Amino acid sequence: MGRAEVIGRPVPASLLLVSAYLVLFGAVALADDTPAPGDDEVEVRIDTVLASNTGKSFEAPASLRQPFVGLFPYSSYRLLQGEERRLAWRREAEFLLPGGRYLVILPRGYKDGRVLLNVMLIAGTRPLVNTALALKNHGVFLMAGPHYEEGVLIIAIGAGTTMQASARVQAPAETP
Amino acid sequence: MNCRETRPLLPLFFDGELEARQMRAVALHSTRCPDCEGELRQLERLQEAVASHVTALVDELDLGQIWSGIAPRLDARAASFGERVRAWWDEREFSWLVRGPALATVAAVIALAVAVWLQRDDSTVRHEIASRVDNSAVLDSVQSSAESVALVTDAETNTTLLWVMDDAAAAVDQAADQWEGQK
User: Fold this and answer.
1) Percent helix, percent strand, percent coil in chain A, to nearest 5
2) Which of B129, B131, B151, B177 would best serve as a mutation to test chain A binding (most A beta carbons within 10 A)?
3) How many CB atoms lie within 10 A of CB A52?
4) For residue A54, what is the DSSP state?
5) For the complex shown, is ipTM > 0.90?
6) For B4-48, how does the pLDDT look when each residue is reduced to its tens digit (9 = 90+)?
């Protein structure tokens, strides 16, 4: 059997290199097409973890391991759900949680490197807890205690914005 | 050609190393000269004796052991992966038609690694590190319908935990109204 011959001029290596660069950086750009949160919004992430003493495992975000170990006595942590949203300032948003509970988040503003939040945990029709806090930008605040299945729920509330500390203050009047 | 001229040429004639003209002359003389023909016969016997002796010596050799002795040395000298790649690369038939895409692929992989690293450095790492290092929170107010509420802070990460009990009987009715007032 004869060997196939390539007819024509070979493609220049420089053209191949340029093409490869364009394809790669195009792919990276497409992969990151979701814009970062701007000054008019804040990124809020809610991770709901079931903590219990049945078994020994940690199946939750790695960033939560250290605070969990320092704060809780449980041997097993399992992420039930995680949800991330970009919220407009002063617009409340509801996050459904396991066991018929839900969380209402109201980002009030940004001041001194902290995101000001109102957080309400509701069980059924009654608000279980209602708090106003100033969370370090890109920090995580934990709520825990509601029983679920064989353990308790831990709700990790993270909030972050690209807004600069001195750029804008949207804090409303203080809560009475 | 006489015997004096022929005798020095007899060994060369026997080995076939003379020119055609000399070969013919020596052969013609030998057929007519018993002395020269006798000397050729002696050469012939000598050759036969040497050949039979050498053949006997070769037959005594055990050639079956040769390959088993050579093979391990060949394995020890097997070309490394780098040498094989270099040999493949240096083959004449591979022109830039092959080298071009190969170089482009290597460059693309390096570019992708750099791009991924830059992307990670820009947002993901910063967010992860920030959330690990300092989670401090200042609570302005807490209202709860639970029987007990505990506020705990992890010293390592400054993470604040608000612990509430789900089975409280009493509810804070004004919480919803207060919520509306905060908006």
Assistant:
1) 15, 50, 35
2) B131
3) 15
4) S
5) no
6) 889 889 988 888 888 888 888 888 888 888 898 898 889 889 989
